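User: Modeling request: complex.
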Amino acid sequence: MSVVLKAENIRKKFYQPSEFEVLKGLNFEVNTGEFFSIVGKSGCGKSTLLYILSTMDTDYEGTLTIKGDKLTGQKQNALSAFRNEHLGFVFQFHFLLPEFSALKNVMLPALKLGKYSEEEIEHRAIEKLKLVGMDEYALKGASRLSGGQQQRVAIARALINDPAIIMGDEPTGNLDKANSMNVFEIFKRLAAENHQTIIAVTHDPDFAAGSDRIMEMEDGRILSISKAGAIPAH
Amino acid sequence: MNWKLAFNIAATHLLTKKKQSIVAMLGVTFGISMFIIMISFMTGVNQFTEDMAMDNTPHIHIYKPLEIEDKKIIALNREQKGTNWYVVQHQRPKNELSKIKNGLALMESIEAMPGVRGVAPQLSTQVFYNNGPVKIPGNVYGIDVKRQAELFDLDKKMDMGSLDELLKASDVIVMGKGLAEKMNVTLGDRVSVTTPEGGNLNLKVVGIFSFGIAAMDQTQSYATLATVQKILQKDPSYITDLNVKMNDVTKAADLRADLENRISGVKIEDWEEANQSLLAGEQIRNIMTFVVCLTLLVVAGFGIYNIMNMNIINKMKDIAILKATGFQGSDVTGIFMLQSVMIGIAGGLLGLGIGFFFSYLLSITPFPAGEFFRIDTFPVNFNPAHYLIGLFFGFLTTLFAGWFPSRKAAKIDPVAIIRG
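Assistant: Request completed. Predicted assembly structure:
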């Protein structure tokens, strides 16, 4: 199995309200096609870490390499382009653009990438919506979907450019049991069938237990990285 | 940058917030329409006053000035050394004719010069109009009827009778409207005029004109050159003024300089010299118009600035999402700039339409200017250039107003928004 993401000695400090080192030198690797979850108590720095991995937060020390590209120190525009093509995001709050239909929301990152024609993109977007079981709501306005439906559309959006890595910040944190299971199943299938890497920060022990590997964090350090099921559900 | 996509997103944003977009647009619309109305009206008024004055004003006026000899008359043929010993208190001018020497020949030679539309000879004299025992002071101008009509549109200023009547009989005049009222005369009546030298003549009124300028309408009348020469008992070559009209009014000063080199013994004046107060007034009005209009546009600009700012605060989450999914800062700037510009263009075009509509209304509104002004409705100038300027400034305002909020949007840190 090849390494798709490599983090070396990642450190980050917050200066507000007072200076505080939130990440204290993290080293780890994530493999292609792996379902990797990051767990830990609130404030342990797991979300902060995820946003560094996502390339959106560039204010850190250490080195981040994804798909062999060293991303640390690159310009914002280059990082935007990289995110657009290689990374997909699913957030706790579903964050669709409320003015657009579900379909359009899914299409936007692909339109930005501009790799395919608009018809092709539409076709692909419907494929992705089918994958998350939302194809029948494609033309519905994003603001009129339920939370679970929105989250599935958001996953479809994350998938549209066939990214190497899909990152989730508590992707099921705001969903009920049934919807959580649904999202989890989709992630599981993406990792297994499409060999896309999933990196998810989660509080949900069941979600973590179902993944391939779990990284547990405490106070800005890695407590352990273990095969799933090795740590007991809290 | 993908403009089509940015346009698509910008248009969707605008259309889903219709009310807000319309309010922002109306700010521009109001600014531009006021700009159009004001500038059309102001330039219309300027044009009107200028036309009114310029119709009667020669571009170059040549006349014989009254000269005061500054050399002492008794010193003319004696050499003076050192101090001037000769003293003459309060020396008087010579009795000189105010005639332009070889006036008619001069007229023809000036008329042949390039850029000159025509030259009208004139013989002016002060007279008393005798109305029973009352003498009313005024002027009589002897004119070349055809030239005067052609160059100064005198025939179009006739209220009653016609200018051509002057050519059909002798001892006839056309009279200013105000003067005719003072004299209580109408067409066909006879008036007697007396010159300062004592000459007297009975003249028949064959026309009444009005320039719309009281000072002229109450004192002036016109007759043929021959008639006035007869009143003054002068020879047929006696003329006192040459009024030159140019094809291009701005070339008048150049021609004046040229003429000053060629002709001596006369005073040559161009219209700018003669109408400095008029021109200054016009400039001040223009400046005022532009200041007011720019203020309106700046206010509209602040309106857009505010609305775009609010818009961007409302859209923080969306901006964060766009950036998270790979949109660059410049894409975000583009999206919001496009919104601003679309507001500007739509508002601007609507403003032009409304501005045109109201200036048209104004241009057909009756204007009670009194009987002296030859005008029935408000003077309005429809100049396409003003519409282009209006659109351009509207566009510019929105560009500026949109730029700062859009830059702010581009700088939004998605992490801060998404993490909450």
